[in-house]
Write a structure and sequence with these properties.
Layout: E1 5-9, E2 15-21, H1 26-34, H2 38-45, H3 54-61, E3 68-75, E4 85-91, E5 98-105, H4 114-127, E6 133-137, H5 143-151, E7 155-160, E8 163-169
Parallel strand pairs: 5-6
Antiparallel strand pairs: 1-2, 2-3, 3-4, 4-5, 6-8, 7-8
Bound molecules: coenzyme A.
Length: 172
């Protein structure tokens, strides 16, 4: 299991604070949204949206640290917990050993290793939380996320609603 709060260093030498947070309300989601370009929002939510629906908001704010885990990264010393990015995984209701993950890195901090660190932390956390399979959906055009999955040995496992699905079977 991860410590709730600790420091780490990106590959470019930037010191960061990592936190596993217990709540992220509507304001917190709006804050995440505000740091994403239209292109990044599209890559994350698979459509051109500027506002989340009430059901999406409920889904994204229902954090309990067991079934829905949220990990944030900020620059060391900065207050905004998810200033650089955040990653989450959510257990499937019908299959508790499987969880779906998603990562968003603020546009100004992309390609600096934040996504890599978030993915590695999500994998580590999931291993200690009885998750056996981590899965994620990614658009075919999302080269950075496809590369991230490839580098971490996720395998293409099918297509749902036109979206390629990737999964990683976790070793204990
Ligand atoms: C996809 C995303 C999470 C990647 O995060 P990131 O912090 O930019 O990724 P990293 O810096 O850790 O890069 C990981 C690898 O991806 C590749 N990569 C990153 N940005 C890239 C780009 N713009 N073009 C091509 N490859 C890229 C590189 O291979 C990189 O490894 P390298 O730095 O050793 O070359 C980030 O771009 C993002 O939040 N995008 C918008 C939301 C989204 O698409 N989320 C994924 C849906 S779940």
């Amino acid at each position: 299991m991860l410590e709730p709060k600790f420091t780490n260093r990106l590959k470019n030498g930037t010191d960061v604070t990592v936190q596993t947070i217990n709540s992220c309300d509507e304001k917190c989601i709006a804050n995440e949204f505000s740091k994403l370009s239209d292109q990044s929002k599209y890559m994350r939510f698979f459509s051109s949206i500027n506002k989340l629906s009430p059901s999406q908001l409920k889904y994204l704010t229902d954090i309990d640290n067991v079934n829905h885990v949220l990990i944030t990264i900020s620059k060391l010393g900065e207050d905004d917990q998810s200033g650089m990015g955040l990653g989450r995984y959510i257990r499937l209701k019908e299959q508790h050993h499987i969880a779906e993950l998603a990562i968003t890195v603020a546009d100004r901090y992309q390609h600096q290793g934040v996504g890599t660190l978030l993915l590695e932390l999500l994998i580590e956390h999931a291993k200690g939380n009885s998750i056996e399979v981590l899965q994620g959906y990614v658009l075919k055009s999302n080269m950075p996320m496809l590369k991230l999955f490839e580098l971490h040995h996720f395998k293409h496992s099918g297509t749902e609603d036109g979206l390629p699905k990737y999964e990683l079977h976790l070793e204990r």
